[in-house]
Inverse folding.
């Protein structure tokens, strides 16, 4: 890359995307190097261990039950959000806006746990049919949707000539059109409409409910239409994912795979979420840039809670679905180490949610202790992913974990 990312402006959308790309490229190069090194040593390596097919089958039953429950809960939370949004747009007030915000937070936490089931081509992010890009895409250029500071006429909502119709179909067609930060749908579009642009270093966005009241703000009617349509679209997309699990179509496909392949998919989801997403794109990029705009939930300042829910999702697969049991007989020491690391990361992230400082405050803080606290979490997430990857190698499971 010829561009020096450090020279991009701190608020630049190109900077956000650039740093994500930089991290991912660095990750990929390191992974390829480690794979090449591993190949060179393979001749002298010990014979790979074999997974117990019966243990894998039992685990996959528990795993699919867990996934079904959590996607059903996520769909129910999204429907509750839709109901609260309906109440808000019908009678905009400070009270109904707060109710919608609280419903968004609950829905977001529920979804964040399910991200442990991503990154392996399942129903959520299948290359051809997965709706993840409509559900959870970010970073978001909020001026693509609505007005922001210094751009009072920007966005789909305010451009009636270019975007005469606001409904589910039009929003879906406009998502990521002409640029990956042109996010028109999903949790973060809803988040922006409820909280507004975050211009504060000490708290979330402060959008007034009057933005949705006719006569108080230009295009309030279109803002209401947008919020209703985008929330209904979220529910539809989650219904699609939920159905693929509940009707048994994907669980059957997963269970029909060779044990090695099925476990590799599940573990790829855990390590990619832990290493690349949580530690990398969601924490390290923001910390290195010292830019609050790189926070995932940057309008609501809810990112610390998201990260904790992500870790709970990983921990549930390991403990509740009992993935560890698949490896326990032959890799008991590795299992014990991983269990300890996963629990330690969960405790660190849980402590985050009780901090008086928000994620963006910690990112821009000049206090070394804040940076050290975040670095400790990142280190723990890296370590748990590497430990999973090292154990996986014993069984010739190939996971994308940087050494």
């Amino acid at each position: 890359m010829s561009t020096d990312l450090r020279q991009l402006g701190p608020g630049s959308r190109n900077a956000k995307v650039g740093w994500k790309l930089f991290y991912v490229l660095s990750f990929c190069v390191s992974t390829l190097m480690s794979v090449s090194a591993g190949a060179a040593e393979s001749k002298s390596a010990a014979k790979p261990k074999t997974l117990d097919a019966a243990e894998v089958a039992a685990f996959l039953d528990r795993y699919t039950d867990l996934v079904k429950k959590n996607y059903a809960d996520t769909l129910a939370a999204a429907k509750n959000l839709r109901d609260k949004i309906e109440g808000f747009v019908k009678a905009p007030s400070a009270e109904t806006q707060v109710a919608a915000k609280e419903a968004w937070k609950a829905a977001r936490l529920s979804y964040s746990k399910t991200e442990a089931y991503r990154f392996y081509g399942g129903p959520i992010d299948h290359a051809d049919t997965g709706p993840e890009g409509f559900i959870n895409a970010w970073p978001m250029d909020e001026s693509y949707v609505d007005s922001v500071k210094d751009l009072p006429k920007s966005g789909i909502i305010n451009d009636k000539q270019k975007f005469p119709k606001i409904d589910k179909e039009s929003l879906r067609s406009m998502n990521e059109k002409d640029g990956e930060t042109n996010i028109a749908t999903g949790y973060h579009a809803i988040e922006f409409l409820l909280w507004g642009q975050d211009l504060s270093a000490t708290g979330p966005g402060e959008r007034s409910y009057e933005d949705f009241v006719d006569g108080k703000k230009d295009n309030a009617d279109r803002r209401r239409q947008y919020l209703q349509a985008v929330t209904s679209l979220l529910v539809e997309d989650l219904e699609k994912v939920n159905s693929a699990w509940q009707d048994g179509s994907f669980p059957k496909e997963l269970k029909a795979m060779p044990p090695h392949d099925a476990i590799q998919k599940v573990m790829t989801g855990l390590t990619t979420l832990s290493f690349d997403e949580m530690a990398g794109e969601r924490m390290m990029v923001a910390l290195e840039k010292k830019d609050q705009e790189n926070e995932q939930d940057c309008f609501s300042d809810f990112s610390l809670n998201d990260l904790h829910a992500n870790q709970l999702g990983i921990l549930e697969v390991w403990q509740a679905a009992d993935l560890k049991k698949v490896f326990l007989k032959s890799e008991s020491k590795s299992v014990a180490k991983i269990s300890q690391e996963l629990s330690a990361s969960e405790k660190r992230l849980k402590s985050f949610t009780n901090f008086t400082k928000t994620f963006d405050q910690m990112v821009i803080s000049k206090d070394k202790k804040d940076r050290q606290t975040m670095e400790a979490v990142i280190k723990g997430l890296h370590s748990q992913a590497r430990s999973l990857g090292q154990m996986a190698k014993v069984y010739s499971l190939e996971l994308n974990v940087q050494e």
